[in-house]
Design brief:
alpha/beta; four-stranded mixed sheet; three-stranded mixed sheet; 20% strand
Length: 166
């Protein structure tokens, strides 16, 4: 039993090294995309991955990068299973991940996602990740990706992305 726990701990540590292709300062663990790691009856490692949305174009890339990271660590055989049984939500993001987002210059989600799966209504006053002012203005509900909105800080005058609650 201790050997299984050690193996699973190694799996989680390895997953913390797999970066999100869009926001490389975040791992798949930071984003809450890993819904479970287990060993099956054949001692195969099963990683359950829930992409940030069902049509995510990076899903195959993430599966390959997870498989490669496990192979490099000698954690084989491994199978990455896409798990769409629940819809990914920003509520699954780790607090550490939210802090990394802010340090990267993207305002992290503020508040909890609605239970219906829609994002929290956008408004002015999202905290600027650079100067921390809340004197900010929504410029566009969509930014570089659909999951981000574009804001401008009225204090430091810098534009910034806000990772919407989803």
């Amino acid at each position: 039993m201790e050997l299984i726990k050690h193996c699973l701990d190694e799996c989680w540590e390895t997953l913390k090294q797999v970066a999100d292709p869009e926001i490389p300062v975040l791992s798949v663990v930071d984003l809450g995309m890993i819904r479970g790691v287990e060993l099956n009856e054949e001692d195969q490692i099963i990683v359950r991955l829930t992409p940030t949305y069902s049509g995510c174009p990076a899903t195959d890339l993430l599966k390959a990068e997870i498989t490669q990271a496990f192979t490099v660590q000698g954690l084989v055989p491994v199978q990455v299973v896409v798990d769409l049984s629940e819809v990914w939500t920003t509520d699954w993001m780790s607090e550490s991940g939210k802090q990394k987002l802010q340090q990267y210059g993207i305002a992290p989600p503020q508040g909890e996602a609605h239970s219906c799966g829609t994002h929290v209504a956008l408004s002015d006053g999202i905290k600027c990740p650079r100067c921390h002012s809340q004197h900010t203005k929504l410029l566009s509900e969509f930014s570089s990706t659909a999951c981000k909105a574009l804001y401008r800080c009225q204090q430091c005058l810098e534009p910034f992305d806000y990772f919407k609650c989803i």
